[in-house]
Amino acid sequence: MAARRISSLLSRSIPLLPRRGQKSYLGRGIYQYSTAAAFEDPIKPPVDVEYNKLLINGQFVDAASGKTFPTLDPRTGEVITHVAEGDAEDINRAVASARKAFDEGPWPKMTAYERTKIMLRFADLVEKHNDEIAALETWDNGKLYEQSAEIEVPMFVRLFRYYAGWADKIHGLTIPADGPYHVQTLHEPIGVAGQIIPWNFPLLMFAWKVGPALACGNTVVLKTAEQTPLSALLVAKLFHEAGLPPGVLNVVSGFGPTAGAALCSHMDVDKLAFTGSTDTGKVVLELSAKSNLKPVTLELGGKSPFIVCEDADVDKAVELAHFALFFNQGQCCCAGSRTFVHEKVYDEFLEKAKARALKRSVGDPFRAGIEQGPQIDAEQFQKILKYIRSGTESGATLETGGDRLGTKGYYVQPTVFSDVKDDMLIAKDEIFGPVQTILKYKELDEVIRRANMTRYGLAAGVFTQNLDTANTLTRALKVGTVWINSFDTFDATIPFGGYKMSGQGREKGEYSLKNYLQVKAVVTALKNPAWL
Amino acid sequence: MTVLSNGNTESYVKIPKIKFTKLFINGEFVDSVSGKTFETIDPRTEEVIARIAEGGKEDVDLAVKAAREAFDHGPWPRLPGCERRRIMLKFADLIDDNLEELAALDTIDAGKLYSLGKIIDIPASAETIRYYAGAADKIHGSTLKMSRDMQAYTLHEPVGVVGHITPWNFPSQMFSMKVGPALAAGCTMVVKPAEQTPLSALYYAHLAKLAGIPDGVLNVITGYGSKAGAAISSHMDIDKVSFTGSTEVGRLVMQAAAASNLKPVSLELGGKSPFIVFDDVDVDKVADLALQGSFYNKGEICVAGSRVFVQEGIYDKFLIKLAEKVKTWVIGDPFNPNVRHGPQVDKQQYDKILSYIEHGKKGGATLLSGGKPCEEKGYYIEPTIFTDVTDDMTIAKEEIFGPVMSVLKFKTVEEVIKRANATKYGLAAGIMTNDLNTANTVSRSIRAGVIWINCYFAFDKDLPYGGYKMSGFERDMGLEGLNKYMQVKSVATPIYNSPWL
């Protein structure tokens, strides 16, 4: 998902734009976004759905209730398949199996290097099935197939290889004491980890959560989003083929208020990690507090500023700001959704940002060269359209877009608002869709104040060539990630997480291991030590 | 002990044809500039296995030129860590795929047990490469806490062109423990394997190329220490030398580094490690461990527990056990799966060990077992145990590097700490006791780089090891083993209006 790769992918894809969709030539190389592509018959995904049950203790099983729910193709709103619907009883079964695999082994009892090898074998298998997994991901989620196949599945593989490399390098410390004591810390796996992941990056969120938990020797119950249950079941199956013992990773499909809540309140779950909305994150934390006080990692919403300074190369800034917002249909928690532009370059930036949005090709995500697919589901689709109306009503200028695209599926026009004020809803709330809001600023101090004036604190983009400006903004912004002249650089090694109501804890990188380790201090009195 | 007949290897394993006998420079196998070759000898039979290109100064120059180019302009240090990891994982898989052939090469070249090569040496070699592959994208610097309006951080940069000089006792593991971390760090390198055991290093070079390690990154120069080794140590364009071998040669390496470009050196040298047995142990178990400690790999191991200190309460009982158990050691062709003890690596070592045994006999120690060569072709020596050894005897002071155990008696914890430390070496120590306080006190008191409590030779990818005192400095293995191939660069810049400092 590194920005470099995305940019190169997108620029490579531009010559492949489907000409049929491009109706009007607006001059200076600008095309209006494709409309026809959205109306065409959807391309049949080159994959079959093989797994639609719960994966508990290494076996695919029906839900205890026998219930199922449909998962929909966001291109059409039609049913892909029916999936077993996990509820409290299934969570109980999954936790019992994870508990057993943790308490009795073999997972935490085998050597770290054996865990490394199983994870490496898994990564190799996923790499082998790259295209099939990518197709399933696109079908269920609506994200571009090129993005799934060339960026996300390879990134998934890299994440697992990265965490495989950690398994045998989890180090505690030996520690000096004030007296004759030998002190050491043991970093022990925490136990059964409950993990709840969202629908916007189903596979990558799987890797961010499951990778470090398993590397540290924990066992896992993973609840996937009800919108996107399919890819997790396929890769979890491959994980077992790679030698993962049963019970180590259990995957329960289902809904938040039922399966998700059961996992959060479970007395036998030792750790919870959640990625999703801030509102749900609050519930997760509450349920944990009310049950067994399990520690919680939260990665929640954002309203991240993308700050274009006066010295910025405007063309580059426009392209990156566009990417920062519209990538993945705007469905990124760290989307650069408040584009602050210095007044000196504001007009030029606006004109070019609008032109760039107009050029964005929207259509079937399986089609090569398309830049934007449908939103995930009807609920999100309606919510985005509501925010667009709110933007217009509150007095922002709608530069382009503003409506759905086509009549079928959840396609939304790339939308740009200018003259946005800080107190407008579209500048305050997380829209989670292809809606860029552009705000003007004058002074560095002013933009720092305004950028920080949000309950969120997930990320920020800074576009400047000035070293001092970059350093000042970096330290002043209250966010978990600052991207300077870049955005969405998501290497396995780089920690990610939020300040304020964007969450707590960090995922990825060495920092993520902390989420899944207990620290045990061991103090032994010494007799006649040679040194202290 | 039993001596099995020698030289009927074909009934156990088919010896592979020797495929690689030339220098490996810039991705190609080439003859030496001088055209010279040297013989590598099968220590089982004293016969020539193959003639190997003999690298000299000119060849080292060519290899360094290739490594320099690969470092200064090539892709290797510029690849993201995850890409170096990918290639190194492939390298490790190829080692696994060629396990039997590599094990056979080390057996004919060094007289090492083929059975252990297949389950220890070669798998460990692959594991080590895999371990460091996993470290390639985990090389972290720090951001720093400055005491004024400054932002500062450290970058851990690859040190550059590395010269590795490796010994003959563990050709495969030494190769991977030097090459693995240097590759992960993004260095390029010239490896000089010992002249006794050049075969597997050349094979590894071939596998590295197959795995996709770019040309020039890994070069192998076979040859002698006094020529190729010296050329590496004194080369002006090598940024770091990592040497494993004798203390005597280590000193020469460091001198050459000092006299040339002051390149940093890491040395893993000799040892005379104490193996300390307290009264409270299970004598039967510990006697086995002590025999392993002295005779594993025919005693050709720098961390050998060659001074066995036994507390007086169990001394006699312990000797009886040793005498009993050493009889079960089967000596013979290292390809024979029943054999535990093959030939010493070469004539020179063989003669040296025998002369130490004579020293022991003449010096007044009691010969409990062994004490002579086997009456076979090849460099076979019986596992030899001397008892009643005193600290001032030559066999208790010098590294014999052969199957010779010295047993010494002691009374108190304080005494054994003092005697165990009374050596110029400080590589390893074994402490055999279940008393927690004794274990802790002795652990902290012994001046040595590795302490094994109720175990011995517990090596691991993640376990750094190396010496105190004249056993060398810096560490191989673990993340410590990676750090030595890194430069630390501190970067500082002023900042303005920071909301925190």
From TrEMBL, chain A:
Transmembrane segments: none
Domain Aldehyde dehydrogenase residue range list: 60-522
Active site, per annotation: E299
SUPFAM superfamilies: ALDH-like
GO cellular component: mitochondrion
UniProt cross-references to Pfam families, sorted A to Z: Aldedh
Coiled-coil annotated residue ranges, if any: none
Signal peptide location: none
Gene Ontology biological-process entries: carboxylic acid metabolic process
Xref: InterPro entries: Ald_DH/histidinol_DH, Ald_DH_C, Ald_DH_CS_CYS, Ald_DH_CS_GLU, Ald_DH_N, Aldehyde_DH_dom
Keywords for this protein: NAD, Oxidoreductase
GO molecular function: aldehyde dehydrogenase (NAD+) activity
Family that this chain belongs to: Belongs to the aldehyde dehydrogenase family.
Name of the molecule in the record: Aldehyde dehydrogenase family 2 member B7
Lineage: Eukaryota, Viridiplantae, Streptophyta, Embryophyta, Tracheophyta
TrEMBL record, chain B:
Active site per UniProt: E268
Protein name per Swiss-Prot or TrEMBL: Aldehyde dehydrogenase family 2 member C4
Segments forming domain Aldehyde dehydrogenase: 29-491
Claim: NAD is one of the keywords in the record: yes
Organism: Forsythia ovata
Keywords, ordered alphabetically: NAD, Oxidoreductase
InterPro entries, sorted: Ald_DH/histidinol_DH, Ald_DH_C, Ald_DH_CS_CYS, Ald_DH_CS_GLU, Ald_DH_N, Aldehyde_DH_dom
Single GO molecular function: aldehyde dehydrogenase [NAD(P)+] activity
Family per similarity comment: Belongs to the aldehyde dehydrogenase family.
Assembly mode: Homotetramer.
